[in-house]
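Reminder to self: C-alpha coordinates first, then the designed residues, so the page reads top to bottom the way the pipeline ran.
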Protein backbone atom coordinates (compact mmCIF):
# COMPACT_ATOMS: atom_id res chain seq x y z
CA UNK A 1 0.00 0.00 0.00
CA UNK A 2 1.10 3.53 -0.81
CA UNK A 3 0.23 6.12 1.81
CA UNK A 4 0.28 9.82 1.07
CA UNK A 5 -0.02 11.73 4.31
CA UNK A 6 -0.79 15.44 4.58
CA UNK A 7 1.31 16.36 1.61
CA UNK A 8 1.85 20.00 0.67
CA UNK A 9 3.86 21.43 -2.23
CA UNK A 10 4.90 25.05 -2.64
CA UNK A 11 6.63 26.90 -5.44
CA UNK A 12 8.48 29.89 -4.04
CA UNK A 13 5.86 30.41 -1.40
CA UNK A 14 2.89 29.76 -3.69
CA UNK A 15 0.82 26.79 -2.55
CA UNK A 16 0.21 24.24 -5.34
CA UNK A 17 -0.92 21.29 -3.19
CA UNK A 18 -2.33 21.59 0.29
CA UNK A 19 -2.73 18.93 2.94
CA UNK A 20 -3.59 15.98 0.69
CA UNK A 21 -3.87 12.48 2.16
CA UNK A 22 -4.95 9.23 0.55
CA UNK A 23 -3.98 5.59 0.24
CA UNK A 24 -3.51 3.51 -2.86
CA UNK A 25 -3.94 -0.23 -2.81
CA UNK A 26 -2.92 -2.68 -5.47
CA UNK A 27 -5.27 -3.89 -8.14
CA UNK A 28 -7.10 -0.61 -8.70
CA UNK A 29 -6.89 2.04 -11.39
CA UNK A 30 -7.11 5.33 -9.52
CA UNK A 31 -7.70 8.51 -11.50
CA UNK A 32 -6.68 11.99 -10.41
CA UNK A 33 -8.97 14.64 -11.81
CA UNK A 34 -9.20 18.38 -11.37
CA UNK A 35 -8.92 21.55 -13.45
CA UNK A 36 -5.76 22.91 -15.09
CA UNK A 37 -3.42 24.17 -12.41
CA UNK A 38 -5.12 22.07 -9.71
CA UNK A 39 -1.80 20.54 -8.69
CA UNK A 40 -2.20 17.10 -10.29
CA UNK A 41 1.29 17.04 -11.84
CA UNK A 42 2.79 18.63 -8.73
CA UNK A 43 1.26 15.90 -6.57
CA UNK A 44 2.63 13.15 -8.82
CA UNK A 45 6.06 14.76 -8.95
CA UNK A 46 6.15 15.13 -5.19
CA UNK A 47 5.33 11.43 -4.81
CA UNK A 48 8.29 10.70 -7.07
CA UNK A 49 10.57 13.01 -5.14
CA UNK A 50 11.11 15.21 -8.21
CA UNK A 51 9.98 18.22 -6.21
CA UNK A 52 10.36 18.57 -2.45
CA UNK A 53 7.48 18.23 -0.02
CA UNK A 54 6.74 21.36 1.96
CA UNK A 55 4.94 19.11 4.41
CA UNK A 56 3.84 15.52 4.84
CA UNK A 57 5.22 12.09 4.09
CA UNK A 58 4.85 9.30 1.58
CA UNK A 59 5.34 5.68 2.49
CA UNK A 60 5.21 2.44 0.54
CA UNK A 61 4.94 -0.81 2.48
CA UNK A 62 5.44 1.31 5.62
CA UNK A 63 8.87 2.62 4.51
CA UNK A 64 9.70 6.00 3.01
CA UNK A 65 8.98 5.80 -0.72
CA UNK A 66 11.99 8.05 -1.40
CA UNK A 67 14.20 5.10 -0.47
CA UNK A 68 12.43 2.77 -2.92
CA UNK A 69 12.08 4.82 -6.06
CA UNK A 70 13.26 1.88 -8.16
CA UNK A 71 9.76 0.50 -7.52
CA UNK A 72 8.13 3.44 -9.30
CA UNK A 73 7.55 3.92 -13.03
CA UNK A 74 6.49 7.35 -14.26
CA UNK A 75 5.17 8.80 -17.48
CA UNK A 76 5.56 12.59 -17.40
CA UNK A 77 3.05 14.94 -18.95
CA UNK A 78 3.96 15.38 -22.63
CA UNK A 79 4.82 19.04 -22.39
CA UNK A 80 7.67 18.20 -20.03
CA UNK A 81 9.70 15.98 -22.33
CA UNK A 82 12.49 17.14 -24.64
CA UNK A 83 11.47 15.51 -27.91
CA UNK A 84 14.55 16.75 -29.76
CA UNK A 85 16.83 14.59 -27.68
CA UNK A 86 18.61 12.37 -30.25
CA UNK A 87 17.76 8.89 -29.05
CA UNK A 88 15.97 5.99 -30.67
CA UNK A 89 12.76 4.35 -29.54
CA UNK A 90 14.54 1.20 -28.41
CA UNK A 91 17.13 3.13 -26.41
CA UNK A 92 14.45 5.14 -24.62
CA UNK A 93 12.86 1.91 -23.47
CA UNK A 94 16.25 0.36 -22.63
CA UNK A 95 16.86 3.27 -20.24
CA UNK A 96 14.29 1.64 -17.97
CA UNK A 97 16.65 -1.31 -17.56
CA UNK A 98 19.62 0.66 -16.26
CA UNK A 99 19.12 -0.30 -12.65
CA UNK A 100 19.06 -3.95 -13.66
CA UNK A 101 22.67 -4.04 -14.81
CA UNK A 102 26.10 -2.95 -13.69
CA UNK A 103 27.16 0.45 -14.93
CA UNK A 104 28.69 0.54 -18.43
CA UNK A 105 27.84 -3.08 -19.15
CA UNK A 106 25.87 -3.82 -22.29
CA UNK A 107 22.28 -4.79 -21.61
CA UNK A 108 21.69 -8.43 -20.73
CA UNK A 109 19.82 -10.76 -23.02
CA UNK A 110 16.98 -10.71 -20.50
CA UNK A 111 16.77 -6.91 -20.61
CA UNK A 112 16.73 -6.98 -24.41
CA UNK A 113 13.91 -9.48 -24.30
CA UNK A 114 11.92 -7.36 -21.82
CA UNK A 115 12.40 -4.24 -23.96
CA UNK A 116 11.27 -6.13 -27.05
CA UNK A 117 8.18 -7.46 -25.27
CA UNK A 118 7.31 -4.00 -23.99
CA UNK A 119 7.63 -2.44 -27.45
CA UNK A 120 5.57 -5.23 -28.98
CA UNK A 121 2.93 -4.81 -26.30
CA UNK A 122 2.40 -1.18 -27.37
CA UNK A 123 2.82 -1.86 -31.08
CA UNK A 124 6.10 0.03 -31.48
CA UNK A 125 8.66 -2.71 -32.11
CA UNK A 126 8.74 -2.04 -35.86
CA UNK A 127 9.70 1.59 -35.19
CA UNK A 128 12.42 0.73 -32.68
CA UNK A 129 15.21 2.45 -34.63
CA UNK A 130 13.37 5.75 -35.12
CA UNK A 131 14.56 8.81 -33.22
CA UNK A 132 11.80 9.72 -30.75
CA UNK A 133 11.58 13.22 -32.20
CA UNK A 134 10.27 11.71 -35.44
CA UNK A 135 7.23 10.03 -33.92
CA UNK A 136 3.65 11.23 -33.76
CA UNK A 137 2.25 12.28 -30.38
CA UNK A 138 0.38 9.00 -29.91
CA UNK A 139 3.46 6.98 -30.86
CA UNK A 140 5.54 8.91 -28.36
CA UNK A 141 3.04 8.11 -25.63
CA UNK A 142 3.27 4.42 -26.56
CA UNK A 143 7.05 4.52 -26.26
CA UNK A 144 6.88 6.01 -22.79
CA UNK A 145 4.32 3.43 -21.79
CA UNK A 146 6.72 0.72 -23.01
CA UNK A 147 9.49 2.34 -20.99
CA UNK A 148 7.32 2.17 -17.86
CA UNK A 149 6.50 -1.50 -18.55
CA UNK A 150 10.15 -2.43 -19.09
CA UNK A 151 11.01 -1.06 -15.68
CA UNK A 152 9.04 -3.89 -14.01
CA UNK A 153 7.95 -1.55 -11.23
CA UNK A 154 5.29 -2.06 -8.57
CA UNK A 155 3.89 1.47 -8.70
CA UNK A 156 2.88 3.28 -11.86
CA UNK A 157 2.30 7.02 -11.96
CA UNK A 158 0.99 8.26 -15.29
CA UNK A 159 0.51 11.97 -15.93
CA UNK A 160 -2.08 12.35 -18.69
CA UNK A 161 -1.10 9.30 -20.73
CA UNK A 162 -4.13 9.88 -22.94
CA UNK A 163 -3.30 13.37 -24.12
CA UNK A 164 -3.03 13.59 -27.89
CA UNK A 165 -3.84 9.94 -28.58
CA UNK A 166 -6.56 8.55 -30.82
CA UNK A 167 -9.30 6.15 -29.70
CA UNK A 168 -7.33 3.08 -30.72
CA UNK A 169 -4.27 4.10 -28.73
CA UNK A 170 -6.48 5.08 -25.80
CA UNK A 171 -8.00 1.58 -25.88
CA UNK A 172 -4.54 0.02 -26.00
CA UNK A 173 -3.39 2.08 -23.02
CA UNK A 174 -6.44 1.07 -20.99
CA UNK A 175 -5.77 -2.57 -21.87
CA UNK A 176 -2.22 -2.22 -20.57
CA UNK A 177 -3.51 -0.52 -17.40
CA UNK A 178 -5.96 -3.40 -16.94
CA UNK A 179 -3.16 -5.95 -17.28
CA UNK A 180 -1.10 -4.09 -14.67
CA UNK A 181 -4.12 -3.96 -12.39
CA UNK A 182 -4.59 -7.72 -12.70
CA UNK A 183 -0.92 -8.19 -11.84
CA UNK A 184 -1.61 -6.38 -8.55
CA UNK A 185 0.27 -3.19 -9.36
CA UNK A 186 -0.55 0.19 -7.84
CA UNK A 187 -1.79 2.61 -10.50
CA UNK A 188 -2.33 6.35 -10.30
CA UNK A 189 -3.35 8.06 -13.52
CA UNK A 190 -4.00 11.72 -14.22
CA UNK A 191 -7.06 11.52 -16.43
CA UNK A 192 -8.73 13.80 -18.91
CA UNK A 193 -11.93 13.72 -20.96
CA UNK A 194 -13.78 11.70 -18.37
CA UNK A 195 -16.99 11.78 -20.27
CA UNK A 196 -16.30 8.58 -22.15
CA UNK A 197 -13.66 6.87 -20.07
CA UNK A 198 -14.68 7.33 -16.46
CA UNK A 199 -15.91 3.73 -16.25
CA UNK A 200 -12.37 2.50 -16.77
CA UNK A 201 -11.31 3.76 -13.34
CA UNK A 202 -12.01 2.02 -10.03
CA UNK A 203 -11.61 5.13 -7.91
CA UNK A 204 -11.14 8.86 -8.25
CA UNK A 205 -9.29 11.59 -6.42
CA UNK A 206 -10.76 14.97 -7.25
CA UNK A 207 -8.37 17.76 -6.39
CA UNK A 208 -8.07 21.48 -6.61
CA UNK A 209 -5.08 22.26 -4.41
CA UNK A 210 -6.84 20.30 -1.70
CA UNK A 211 -8.46 16.89 -1.94
CA UNK A 212 -12.12 17.56 -2.67
CA UNK A 213 -13.33 13.97 -2.93
CA UNK A 214 -11.93 10.44 -2.86
CA UNK A 215 -14.04 7.42 -3.73
CA UNK A 216 -16.01 5.62 -6.40
CA UNK A 217 -17.25 7.29 -9.57
CA UNK A 218 -20.70 7.93 -8.12
CA UNK A 219 -19.27 9.29 -4.87
CA UNK A 220 -16.81 11.66 -6.54
CA UNK A 221 -18.42 12.79 -9.77
CA UNK A 222 -21.35 14.66 -8.30
CA UNK A 223 -22.54 18.13 -9.29
CA UNK A 224 -21.54 19.55 -5.87
CA UNK A 225 -18.01 18.15 -6.02
CA UNK A 226 -17.51 19.22 -9.62
CA UNK A 227 -18.76 22.69 -8.80
CA UNK A 228 -16.23 22.88 -5.96
CA UNK A 229 -13.39 21.81 -8.23
CA UNK A 230 -14.25 23.38 -11.56
CA UNK A 231 -16.56 26.24 -10.70
CA UNK A 232 -18.70 27.09 -13.71
CA UNK A 233 -17.04 24.69 -16.13
CA UNK A 234 -18.84 21.64 -14.77
CA UNK A 235 -20.80 21.13 -17.99
CA UNK A 236 -17.70 19.44 -19.38
CA UNK A 237 -18.16 16.50 -17.08
CA UNK A 238 -21.67 16.14 -15.76
CA UNK A 239 -23.08 14.11 -18.63
CA UNK A 240 -20.63 11.29 -18.18
N1 LIG B 1 7.90 24.91 -11.69
C1 LIG B 1 6.93 25.69 -11.22
N2 LIG B 1 7.20 26.90 -10.68
C2 LIG B 1 6.22 27.67 -10.17
N3 LIG B 1 4.93 27.33 -10.17
C3 LIG B 1 4.58 26.16 -10.73
C4 LIG B 1 5.55 25.27 -11.27
N4 LIG B 1 4.92 24.17 -11.74
C5 LIG B 1 3.61 24.36 -11.48
N5 LIG B 1 3.40 25.54 -10.87
C6 LIG B 1 2.10 26.07 -10.42
O1 LIG B 1 1.54 25.17 -9.51
C7 LIG B 1 0.15 25.00 -9.73
C8 LIG B 1 -0.18 23.55 -10.02
O2 LIG B 1 0.41 23.17 -11.25
P1 LIG B 1 0.35 21.69 -11.82
O3 LIG B 1 1.20 21.64 -13.03
O4 LIG B 1 0.65 20.76 -10.71
O5 LIG B 1 -1.20 21.57 -12.18
P2 LIG B 1 -1.97 20.45 -13.02
O6 LIG B 1 -3.18 20.09 -12.23
O7 LIG B 1 -1.05 19.36 -13.39
O8 LIG B 1 -2.44 21.26 -14.32
P3 LIG B 1 -2.66 20.75 -15.85
O9 LIG B 1 -4.02 20.13 -15.91
O10 LIG B 1 -2.63 22.03 -16.63
O11 LIG B 1 -1.55 19.82 -16.20
C9 LIG B 1 -0.20 25.96 -10.88
O12 LIG B 1 -0.69 27.13 -10.31
C10 LIG B 1 1.11 26.19 -11.57
O13 LIG B 1 1.14 27.46 -12.16
MG1 LIG C 1 -0.41 18.59 -15.15
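Designed residues (240 positions):
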Amino acid sequence: MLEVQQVAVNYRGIVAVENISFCLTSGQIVGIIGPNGAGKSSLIKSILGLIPLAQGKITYRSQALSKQLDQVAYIPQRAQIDWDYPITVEKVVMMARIRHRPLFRPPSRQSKEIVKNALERVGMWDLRDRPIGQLSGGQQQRVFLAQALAQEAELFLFDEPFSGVDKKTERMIFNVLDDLKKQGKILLVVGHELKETSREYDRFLLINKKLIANGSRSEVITPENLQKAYGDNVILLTNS
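The pocket of adenosine-5'-triphosphate (ligand 1) is lined by residues 11, 16, 34, 36-42, 77 (CB under 6 Å).
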